[in-house]
């Protein structure tokens, strides 16, 4: 090996490639590598931008949740401070020294006021109807008591008298189209009801039943199951409030008749007070017959408030065959007809009081409505005096005409004016031969002098002013003073009044 070759072989790389000239293949290889590197750089730039965007998004989420966490911590701090403050206020409270028995009585009085208010307000609201669907909880006002403190919760749960009033609504399956979800909701709802009833132990129940649906029709099977569960509770129920509102069924009459389960002959229900309300609908006659059938199995029933019942040519179509309400003493009816009253008088031999909102006129050949024990009759219809000639009531002692809840501003209306038909009144008292001791008139007389012969013929009557503050009599002082000299002073104060609301009672 010569010296030149040795020198070139041992020279550094840059010296060996100093005079090296790239050929075409080498240039293409370099360009290809450049393109590949540019593509990789572009992809890396895109990934970097993507991660930067994600980082900005998560940074915003982090700031948002950090703020929420701080707000929650602040609310927790405020709640803890309020709890500590309330606990300090309760420490010296005299309520802590109240025995459980006294606290239970306070709760009972509170719930009595709540139930009385809710019957007119909350029960009619949409929130009450959908409360179970929205909260999954059977509505009871005890919740307010149970959330105060552990002691109040313990007293409320352990006092059976607080759980005697049981609200029953349609199960969730009546409102939820999802059958699978409805079954679970129904089971949970029935569990809540059963638990509340169990807390009442062996005490009698006050059932507040409401069947309503604003849209669509109710499934007959759902209604039947609900009514069967209701009837299972009737043997230990003393107060029963049934309310049917906007109830419609998409079934023929034969199917509808099978919706309402009838009790067996051996069934006896402990109900003493019954209130039934439902609006006029194609099913109202079936509802009425079902309620009257239940009443047959209530031997202790004393009071009944019934909805409008209008009969036909055959009263037997309304009352069950052989029906007898042996202890029923007081009945309140809305619109009704003479044949319904005739059937009621035939089934209830111990009646002492009847209140009717409106009585339809009977045919000319319809027999008189006779009852030998009825002592109080009230008809709120303004022209009810003409209907008296349809009755024969030898035991009548109190007669009330007109609406006692009429407002003072409506006294000028035509519906609040009463004409006193002397012929009809005379015919009624002639055929009844009763000794009236109390007369109440809640409307304005068009001709007050027409009533004076009747008052003078009733020796057992004695006038006294009504306890209602502004509702005084428009009777002429001259006529009253002539027949009742002892009332001359009182009547001189009543000559300018516009409203009749007199009570006529036997002297003490």
TrEMBL record:
Highest rank taxon of the organism: Eukaryota
Coiled coil (residue ranges): 27-75
Alphabetical UniProt keywords: Coiled coil
Protein name: Uncharacterized protein
